[in-house]
Specification:
The complex is a heterodimer.
Chain A lengths: L1 H28 L22 E2 L4 H8 L2 E8 L10 H4 L1 H12 L4 E8 L5 H15 L3 E5 L2 H5 L4 H17 L3 E5 L14 H13 L4 E2 L1 H11 L12 H21 L16
Parallel strand pairs in A: 2-3, 2-4, 4-5, 5-6
Antiparallel strand pairs in A: 1-6
Helix pairs in contact in A: 4-10, 5-7, 7-8
Chain B lengths: L10 H18 L18 H24 L1 H36 L6 H4 L8 H9 L10 H10 L1 H10 L1 H18 L15 H26 L2 H22 L9 H7 L9 H17 L13 H8 L1 H21 L4 H31 L17
Helix pairs in contact in B: 1-2, 1-13, 1-14, 2-3, 2-7, 2-9, 3-6, 3-7, 3-14, 6-9, 7-8, 7-9, 8-9, 10-12, 13-15, 14-15
Classes of the chains: A alpha/beta, B mainly alpha.
């Protein structure tokens, strides 16, 4: 009998190992996108955290080669900041600045279609028009928060995501998903988990890169980078958060649109 | 015709239901770092399966005896009374939830979260929200289990009647309902949109299976679940689930999951009690029954007493756990969210649950022994918890 129970005792040990493993295994397996040589560690970095899924972006690669990159950010309330400077300091504005800095000689424009309180299905309805207006090579689609608040049916949510990808691709635009914010204070009110999983799943299925804003912000919160619990009317922390989001989003865009020769391995799908 | 029911309460039921209640509490505190110890992180199923199965088992155990002794009508009345108690408990928890939300909505402001704060708007139209909550259509996060339990009990009397006469037919009907709900996508509607997070037409299978086991099914399965082959299969499946679960945390491992597997298992549907989750629970159950025999002396030792005393009063302790998880989140938000606080809140919560369980046990004992006009209650009837 005691022999059997030693199996039970082994379980907590395994659990502890499971916690330690990320630190042990991440560098050894080397399947995270390789970091460029000697990057300066800034407050935006969350080392050791997998915060994105990368897939190649063909249209974006072409657009960069042609020195003219046009991006559309389609989103809801968490893609904007209040105030007169809001448009510039929110992540779409910071993305434009970061892309322009990292792509010298390329004309970068970032258009936005942002209105609060919209579900994925709501955005799909107006998507064709927005795409026709800005004719982007890349559409960054921020969604799922309002779906979770409205507890939209999981199947309908998945279908809306798939439909949106189809529409964007049919007019020659790549897609990147951007998932909800980590918002610790409203966690007991908004059930995000199943929507995060759905988004990840649809992204994998359709080979769409995912910018995992949720886990990135969670990592920031755990590391103490930003105090996301704080109740403040001031906009300075929100601006710093959006600045980091814009910069890391630019990194993902560049990572996903690298020419094949310099592509790095990403998971089971080598970039092509 | 009618199978004789066992008379002694199986302590393992209380033990594992108590443990499940602790795990549910830990999982329900948002962002709780301690919740990495819970089983949902190492496989497909979680503590909800354990809770629903054992609840079905004990419901059949208690109301099955009642039905044999007092007849169908009286037993049905008792089941419905229990459903009513759970409804009252749910509404009580909703009131506490409203209080927390109302407080937070007045103190919370952050331009980063203007969109998320919109969720607090529902307080501004209580005419709709509260009515939808009373209709069990509007269910705040983590308040889905009790409404499921209510619906399961509402139709439990007829299925119990059937299970007592023809266990196989009862179980077959349950499987048929499960299959139908999958084929035709049947679920109850929720507010403001969508469906119930726990589809009662799917989850009833686990509840009825628990009841079936209690009414002699476990004995019939006895030889099967103790065979080396079945135990081996259970271990193999758990190992499979464990390796898949690891690929969620270490995306690098995902590369080793063959595409035909990842292509066929996802999404693992919690709402409709995915077959993969059910199998994971059954594997856990087979191994648990093999590891922990019913007459294992240690079940009566003080080590397991804290969990057993919680499992024995499951409704009270479950509600307390939901309340404590609200309170725990509130502490993280208003006081501190350091690692130390996560450990402290988790440990204190479990200690409070154990204390409450012990208090209820003590009170029941005193009430039963004390002098008074009430006649002594037969053990296994009113004295038992479901």
């Amino acid at each position: 009998m005691t022999g059997r129970f030693s199996i039970l005792l082994a379980l907590p040990v395994l659990a502890v190992l499971g916690q330690l493993l990320p630190g042990l295994s991440a560098p050894a397996v080397a399947q995270t996108p390789a970091v460029p040589a000697t990057p300066p560690l800034t407050e935006c970095d969350a080392p050791g955290h997998h915060t994105e899924i990368a897939f190649p972006l063909a249209q974006t690669t072409k657009a960069i080669a042609a020195k003219k990159l046009s991006v559309l950010v389609l989103g809801a309330g968490s893609s904007q900041l209040p105030g007169a400077a809001g448009a510039k300091s929110a992540y779409p504005g910071r993305l434009q600045a970061a892309l322009a800095a990292k792509l010298p000689g390329v004309e970068v424009t970032v258009a936005t279609d942002i209105k609060p309180a919209r579900t994925a299905a709501d955005m799909v309805k107006t998507m064709r028009q927005s795409l026709a207006d800005s004719k982007p090579s890349l559409m960054i689609w921020q969604t799922a928060t309002y779906d979770a608040m409205q507890s939209v049916d999981a199947d309908q949510f998945n279908q809306a995501l798939a439909k949106g990808i189809k529409i964007a691709r049919s007019v020659g635009s790549d897609v990147i998903f951007l998932n909800p914010q980590y918002s610790p204070r409203t966690e007991s009110m908004i059930a995000l988990t199943s929507y995060l999983e759905s988004m990840r799943w649809v992204a994998m299925q359709h080979e769409v890169p995912l910018f995992d804003r949720f886990n990135l912000m969670k990592a920031w919160s755990d590391l103490g980078t930003f105090d996301l619990y704080s109740a403040t009317k001031k906009v300075d922390m929100a601006e710093r958060v959006h600045n980091c989001l814009g910069r890391l989003l630019a990194d993902l865009v560049l990572e996903s649109s690298k020419a094949p020769s310099s592509a790095t391995e990403s998971g089971d799908k080598p970039a092509q | 015709m009618i199978a004789p029911l066992p008379t002694e309460r199986d302590l393992r039921l209380d033990l594992f239901r108590g443990l499940a209640l602790w795990l549910i509490f830990l999982d329900h505190i948002p962002s709780n770092l301690v919740s990495w110890v819970t089983i949902r992180n190492y496989g497909f199923s979680d503590a909800t399966e354990i809770f629903v199965f054992i609840s079905g088992y004990t419901a059949a155990f208690v109301y099955g005896r009642a039905m044999q002794i007092t007849g169908f009508i009286v037993a049905t009345a008792r089941v419905l009374k229990r459903a009513w108690q759970i409804y009252v408990a749910h509404v009580f928890l909703f009131a506490i939830y409203l209080a927390e939300i109302s407080y937070i909505s007045h103190s919370f402001e952050n331009p980063l979260y203007s969109e998320e704060m919109g969720v607090l708007n529902f307080i501004q139209n209580p005419d709709v929200t509260i009515i939808q909550a009373l209709l069990l259509k509007f269910k705040p996060v983590n308040m889905d289990v009790l409404p499921l339990y209510i619906v399961l009990l509402l139709w439990f009397a007829p299925i119990l009647w059937l299970l007592l006469r023809s266990p196989t037919l009862g179980l077959l009907i349950s499987v048929a309902i499960y299959t139908t709900s999958w084929m035709f996508d049947i679920n109850l509607p929720a507010y403001p949109s969508g469906d119930w997070a726990f589809n009662p037409f799917a989850w009833q299978l686990l509840f009825v299976f628990g009841a079936w086991c209690a009414l002699g099914g476990a004995k019939r399965l006895g030889r099967w679940i103790k065979s080396k082959v079945v135990i081996g299969l259970a271990f193999a499946y758990l190992a499979f689930c464990f390796s898949i679960a690891m690929s969620w945390y270490f995306p690098a491992l995902g590369a080793y999951v063959p595409e035909f597997i990842s292509g066929s298992i996802y999404p693992i549907d919690k709402t409709n009690l995915d077959v993969l989750r059910m199998l994971h629970f059954l594997s856990l159950a087979v191994i648990t029954v093999w590891l922990v025999p019913q007459d294992w002396p240690a079940l009566k030792s003080p080590i397991f007493w804290p969990a057993i005393v919680c499992g024995r009063h499951s409704l009270e302790i479950f509600c307390l756990g939901v309340f404590l998880s609200f309170a725990g989140h509130f502490v993280f938000t208003e006081v501190s969210n350091r690692v130390f606080m996560h450990v402290l809140v988790s440990a204190a919560g479990i200690a409070i649950m154990v204390g409450a369980g012990a208090l209820i046990s003590w009170y029941r004992r005193v009430e039963r022994q004390g002098p008074g006009p009430r006649p002594p209650v037969k053990p296994g009837l009113a004295g038992s918890e479901v």
